[in-house]
Each structure stands twice: as C-alpha cells, then as structure tokens.
Amino acid sequence: MNYVSPFLFWAFTGLMLGFALAVVFNRNPVASALSLVVSFIGLAALFVQLDAFFIGSIQILVYAGAVMVLFLFIIMLLDLKAEQRRRLNPFTAIGGAAVILSFIAELITVLRHVPGGNNPLPALSGRGLSGQGSIDDVREIGFTLFSHYNFPLQVVGVLILVSTIGVIILSKRELK
Q1: How large is the greatest C-alpha to C-alpha distance in the chain, in angstroms?
Q2: Residues 61-90: pLDDT tens digits?
C-alpha cells in the first residue's frame, strides 16, 4: 500500500461530506443531483487513495456517470420544480435530532467493542482467489461474482430489466 497523505484524505472526506450535505439541503433537484456527483467523485478519490483503483474507477463510471444520468433524466421527465421553503416543525426537528444522536451513540458503541478495530489490515498475499500468481482487481472481482454470487447477480439483472420496462410503461403518455 502506498503512503496515504492525511491532508488529501481529510480534504476528500470534507469535499464528500460537504457535497453530501448539499444534496440534502438543496431545494433545486438538479443542483442536488449535481452535488451528488461531486460527492461520488470525492468517494472515488478516497478509494484510489486506499489502492482500490477498480472500485474507484467503477464509482466514477457507474455512479457518477450512468446512475446520475438516470437521475437527471427522471428529474427532467417529472419536471420537478424547486421546493418551496416550509416552516420548521419542532416535533420533526426533535425527532431528527434524536435519531442523529442515537446513531452517533450506536456508532461509538460499535467502534469501542470491535476487537482489533484500530489494527491495520494485513498486506495482501501474492496469490488471489483464482490461484494465479498476481493480484488483478478486475479478474478477482469477476471470478468471485461469477463463481460464488452467480444467482444473486442474475436476480439483480432481472430486477433492473423489470424496473426499466416499468419506467418505460409509466412514462408513456396517453393519446387523446
């Protein structure tokens, strides 16, 4: 593993979290979707820093590329307008704060009780899952997907096909 710069780690983490907050707080759906793209790019940069080049590149290609094009297509298809500001409901704010605090408490509890959570991961061996000499991300992921997870992969493919057909049927306009 290469040396990971703490400055770059925190810079990309701040970029990702800042734009993730912009996704939530933006009233314009297009600006919110574009903020999500920048958040995905920050996440991909974190993966690249951890030497997970395949996951980082797939993060850009699949999520920042294809999924966001789909989101923008749906936003434009539905012709969503910017949401109007509403009054803050105190019960909703208290409930949201309670959920956030309970999540933070649960996170701290889990992090304290995980044995070896502060230990670094061991280096990868020279032999991958397929028994070959060198580690190749794409080959190992493909081997794992098609040998151990073939049925779930097929199910996901069918679900995507059915949802695509459903979107096409729902978006057709009736002739008058």
Answers
A1: 67
A2: 888 888 887 777 777 777 666 556 677 788
Nearest one of 21, 25, 38 to 83, comparing CA atoms:
25
Dihedral-angle region of residue 54 (phi above 0 means left; psi in -120 to 50 means alpha; beta otherwise): alpha
Q: How far apart are CA 159 and CA 69, in angstroms?
A: 19
Q: CATH assignment of 1-83?
A: 1.20.120.1200
pLDDT tens digits, 24-37: 888 888 888 889 98
H helix intervals, the chain = 6-25, 29-49, 53-58, 68-78, 90-113, 137-148, 150-171
CA–CA distance, 134 with 76 (Å, rounded to integer):
46
pTM: 0.59
